[in-house]
Amino acid sequence: xxxxxxxxxxxxxxxxxxxxxxxxxxxxxxxxxxxxxxxxxxxxxxxxxxxxxxxxxxxxxxxxxxxxxxxxxxxxxxxxxxxxxxxxxxxxxxxxxxxxxxxxxxxxxxxxxxxxxxxxxxxxxxxxxxxxxxxxxxxxxxxxxxxxxxxxxxxxxxxxxxxxxxxxxxxxxxxxxxxxxxxxxxxxxxxxxxxxxxxxxxxxxxxxxxxxxxxxxxxxxxxxxxxxxxxxxxxxxxxxxxxxxxxxxxxxxxxxxxxxxxxxxxxxxxxxxxxxxxxxxxxxxxxxxxxxxxxxxxxxxxxxxxxxxxxxxxxxxxxxxxxxxxxxxxxxxxx
Length: 335
Description:
This protein is 49% helix and 8% strand. The protein has 335 residues and is of the alpha/beta class. The chain has a six-stranded mixed sheet with strand order 1-3-2-4-5-6, with helices on both faces. It is globular.
């Protein structure tokens, strides 16, 4: 009785492994095919983002080219990938770093010097080099904004190592005295140019990375910004406003909406508040305020009608959170 039973168990195990292997190969081939399809639809990053560095003053006005002797009160530095560079923007005024610098100048009444170290196509592996370049160029900044993660998913890089690299970058910046705000990995679920089920896989991995990044950032003394929670519902609700016509790249209004969420976090990191908002309230999700936000976006038609260039900077995520009627794929796969 024992020998036949062992033989039956061995056969069942072999059959299970064989079917699992076939399913794996089939899934891999499907996803590889869809990745090729997405690459044909989504253009490569060839353009050079507008140069936006300089000194921004309260009250608006043109940017002042910085050189030795030009005064400023706060030095803001931008690190990360194409999202941070404002890839695809047609004007420097649309670049997220400029939007943050102008907003910071307006709210604080101070002169803000903006420097950009972000590189199109960068992954978390490139952050250490960007920070090295910062130390070579001169003194560290007073504040830093990092936007990174999408390319760690598309490469792909490991989630744990990618998050730890972001944490180490934040730790180095904090050790230099800088306040640090990090926009975590984008929510790929809003990018309908990526077919299913590849989009579900990418979104699931992206949300996992965003949560790991947020934990690493907090542990290193930085402030993570949960863009998925704050922005994704609006991208689902009004894609025609926040995306360019190809439904992959965001409009300039997408950058501006992201900048409006980065500013409260930056003030929290700097120890201030925004327009009287207590720091602890500045980072709460404002998803319920979609009507006012979307009305505001509708009023800046000169921005959203232009095509800009990077995957929507909608980051982070909370398991089970529903974005515009789309369930979190960690709970239920999106349709």
